[in-house]
């Protein structure tokens, strides 16, 4: 599929003065870095991430992230106080960009509140749209219409630099992105209430990339779909 550079943010507002933020960046399913929850500095998780961009670019990105988080905290504290939202509450954000095969790209920004979809930002039309019909979502939408400094920062981070930065990171990430790791399969049996029957379980782990096809064979032939066959979705870190 098309490569996606994505940032995840979780901010917990414990009370009016105590706020904690966690952040992580991914290229596809490869973790690139985490945000120090105290200093908001970036800690790189792969040795090839920092050299992908000039130091001045990383300094600019780091500064913009810190300004964004400061404005985000202020905006949400102000809005929830006016609407009298009780503490604690949690805001989640996911934002980034996708690079298509024709070298065009699309950026995206979504905001969640206490685990539910809350707001989205359309970077083409520069408009915020509520994703829930609540007083807080409507107020935030109106507030953001006039909060041009925050909106311009979002545009700069994700609509102006995201694709360019991802293209440079992709060059250094090539080995990790193209690696192939064969799956390991372990089959074990469990006794069923009927002593004449056994439950066979196959656990497949350690493979990369995530796309994998698993099938059962009987006497060298693939077992066709059957109600007796079941499978689980891909589990994290499988």
UniProtKB/TrEMBL annotation:
Residue span(s) of domain Ig-like: 183-238
GO terms under biological process: antigen processing and presentation, endogenous lipid antigen via MHC class Ib; antigen processing and presentation, exogenous lipid antigen via MHC class Ib; immune response; positive regulation of T cell mediated cytotoxicity
Annotated SUPFAM superfamilies: Immunoglobulin (SSF48726), MHC antigen-recognition domain (SSF54452)
InterPro entries: Ig-like_dom, Ig-like_dom_sf, Ig-like_fold, Ig_C1-set, MHC_class-I_related, MHC_I-like_Ag-recog, MHC_I-like_Ag-recog_sf, MHC_I/II-like_Ag-recog
Keywords: Glycoprotein
UniProt cross-references to Pfam families, sorted A to Z: C1-set, MHC_I_3
UniProt GO cellular component terms: external side of plasma membrane; extracellular space
Transmembrane segment boundaries: none
Signal peptide bounds: none
UniProt key word Ligase: no
Keyword match Glycoprotein: yes
GO molecular function, one term: exogenous lipid antigen binding
Top-level taxon: Eukaryota
PANTHER family: MHC CLASS I-RELATED, T-CELL SURFACE GLYCOPROTEIN CD1A
Protein name listed in UniProt: CD1D protein
Organism: Crypturellus undulatus
């Amino acid at each position: 599929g098309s490569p996606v550079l994505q940032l995840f943010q979780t901010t917990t507002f414990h009370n009016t003065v105590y706020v904690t933020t966690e952040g992580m960046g991914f290229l596809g399913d490869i973790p690139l870095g985490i945000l120090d929850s105290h200093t908001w500095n970036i800690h790189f998780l792969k040795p090839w991430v920092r050299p992908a961009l000039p130091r001045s670019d990383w300094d600019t990105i780091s500064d913009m992230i810190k300004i964004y988080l400061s404005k985000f905290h202020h905006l949400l504290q102000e809005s929830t106080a006016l609407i009298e939202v009780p503490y604690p509450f949690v805001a989640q954000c996911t934002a980034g960009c996708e690079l298509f095969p024709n070298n065009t790209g699309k950026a995206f920004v979504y905001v969640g509140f206490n685990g539910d979809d809350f707001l989205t930002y359309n970077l083409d039309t520069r408009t915020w749209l509520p994703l829930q019909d609540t007083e807080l979502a409507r107020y935030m939408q109106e507030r953001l219409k006039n909060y041009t400094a925050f909106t311009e920062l979002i545009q700069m981070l994700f609509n102006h630099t995201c694709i360019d930065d991802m293209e440079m990171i992709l060059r250094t990430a090539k080995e990790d992105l193209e690696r192939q790791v064969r799956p390991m399969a372990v089959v074990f049996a469990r006794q069923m209430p009927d002593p004449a029957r056994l439950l066979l379980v196959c656990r497949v782990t350690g493979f990369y990339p995530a796309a994998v096809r698993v099938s059962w064979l009987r006497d060298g032939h693939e077992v066709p779909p059957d109600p007796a066959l079941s499978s689980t979705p891909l589990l994290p870190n499988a």
